[in-house]
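tool=predict chain=A
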Amino acid sequence: MKQILLAATLLALLLAACTGASAEEGITVEDAWVRPAPVTGGNGAGYMVITNHTGEPDALIGASAGFAEMVEVHESVHMEGDTMSMHAVERIDIAPGESVRLEPGSYHIMLMGITEELQEGDTVELTLHFETAGDVTVQAPVREQ
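tool=predict ok
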């Protein structure tokens, strides 16, 4: 009976390995994209969904990109009336098992002084800096929306 149980367990593990079934781990970034600057030297923005698959809290504390002179984590906020304001934030906390969406009108990666002419359809590299997970590099297509 022990041999049958052991064989069944091994078979289940083998099948899981063959199907590539595995749980997400660490910090993942999905749906990353960059809105280009209207002119070279102008500003653009990066957007994405960041998920913390760890059992511990983490925080996005910065970002970098080789095609921009300065990169900051920003938040857009509604002011009185219909005006918007934007300011740098030191961190975006991400609880275990939670996701944070960086999107227009909310949190985003601000790319200032873009040094390359980015065209829709290009792909650029962004490196996100996390307090615990360290650096995570993502490929982001350039698009208008």
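Confidence is low (pLDDT under 50) at residues 4-22. The domain at 24-141 is CATH 2.60.40.1890 (Immunoglobulin-like).
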